[in-house]
Amino acid sequence: SVSPSPPAIRVRPLTCTETRRGDRQVVHSLGDGTVHVSAARHDATFGFSAVFDAGASQEAVFEGSGMRQLVELAIDGFSCTVFAFGQTGSGKTYTLMGPLAQSETRPAAPGLLGLMQRSFACLLEQSRSRSSDLALSASYLEIYNEQVRDLLSPGPPCALPLRWSKTRGFYVENQLSVDFESLEVIADLLLQALNPAPPPAGSQRRRTSAHALNRHSSRSHALLTIHVRSRAVSVHPALGTACPSKQGTLCFVDLAGSERVKETGSSGELSVEANNINRSLLALGHCISLLAKPRGKRTHIPYRDSKLTRLLARSLGGSGITLMVACISPSSHCLSETLSTLHYASRARRVTTRP
């Protein structure tokens, strides 16, 4: 077995609201993959493969987290997953997708592009350097209130059944997969997804709401999967055949933020959403805790406890290679959630898979 890409930590800057409120910065990067939390009754140091402080660029996160290697492994036929985890408002969606304000008519500055767009560019770069044909398709799902919904299918999103088979594991039935002739089209899909104006595609249809912690809080878990079929072109036309094809996947998982309902001021439908989010994240944390134990001491891994853990079963402890980017706030006001996220990521370091 091999270890997955170890968790990376990203510490966002203090927001204007936190600064005006007088919050103290209690999280500090000490270098060499070490982050220190210092506050009243709390003094702890955590070690990870990489820690990105508030001054780290999007490019630095892409290169330093091992994301480029994950793209290369997907082209080589592996199942690769990157998921962002953390409190609501900690910078998960920004890390994966860049600024929410970007659109086709107002693209983001190149330096602000997230892991997704940079991965698309890397796929194109690798395709050219390896002299191989890449056939690409994409699927885009969200898990909202424990219902799996297709974000690419036309019309209002409807719930799709989640099945299991011995050969495929857990899979979504009747999920739409869209073929792409170029990586630029996938990038355009992402821009349409971020665009609040019609047409209603991608994450524009994804559930978001405003509350006390975040004006654009993600109320669902979103999974964008790029299916990569790679076929090396024969350099000897007389042979008449090419090398065997490889089929890999690159899945981006933007988890809804963990949160304390009383701090968000949520009620009614928002409260129901928050409770479903927290239950699924609790199930995810429970699976990670059990997977972190030595194989000889593991009990049954309860993947069936939530739709999220079912869809991530292979990524977490199966045949995939997984990168976790844990996003945290440096604010003293968020200390409890920050410590929870750091402990969460520490457990994930001990999980091994067999890709």
Describe this structure in words.
- The chain is of the alpha+beta class and 355 residues long.
- 30% of the residues lie in helices and 28% in strands.
- It is built from eleven helices and 17 strands.
- It has helices spanning 16-21, 58-64, 67-75, 92-97, 115-129, 183-194, 261-264, 269-291, 307-311, 313-317, 335-348, and strands at residues 8-11, 27-31, 34-39, 42-47, 50-52, 79-86, 132-144, 147-150, 159-160, 162-165, 169-172, 178-180, 208-211, 214-218, 221-232, 246-254, 321-328.
- The strands form four sheets. Strands 1, 5, 6, 7, 8, 9, 12, 15, 16 and 17 form a ten-stranded mixed beta sheet that branches. A three-stranded antiparallel beta sheet has the order 2-3-4, covered by helices on one side.
- A hairpin with a 2-residue loop joins strand 2 (27-31) and strand 3.
- The longest helix is centred in the last third of the chain and has 23 residues, at 269-291.
- The chain is globular.
- The N and C termini lie close together (8 Å).
- The relative contact order is 0.21.
- The model is unreliable at 196-204 and 208-217 (pLDDT under 50).
| Mean pLDDT, all residues | 82
Helix count equals 11
Radius of gyration: 20 Å
How many β-strands, per DSSP? 17
| Oligomer status | single chain
Please estimate the helix content.
25-40%
- The rounded distance between the terminal residues' Cα atoms is 8 Å
Low-confidence stretches: 196-204, 208-217
Going by helix content, strand content and strand pairing, the class is alpha+beta
Give the biggest beta sheet. Answer: 10 strands, mixed
| Shape call | globular
Query: What is the ordering of alpha helices and beta strands?
Result: EHEEEEHHEHHEEEEEEHEEEEHHHHEH
Q: Report strand %.
A: 25-35%
